[in-house]
Known about the structure:
This protein is mostly helical. Helix content is 58%, strand content 0%.
Amino acid sequence: AGSDLPSLACRAEPDPDDLSRGLRAGAFTAEELLRRYVRIVYDNSGSLLETARRLDLDRRTVRAKLGMMKS
């Protein structure tokens, strides 16, 4: 669905090694960790609604964490 597409020109693929190192080092704030996790789930599902369902979040929260602008 068109509303599920990000307004960002390209999506940066999260680096699992960076995420793992950051987690072990305690380098992320809770907000940054949530943004990164939402991005990973979204990249795997390809859908705002599916990401929201999997994470038990409102679709508007998912959109905000992904940095998407409402069209």
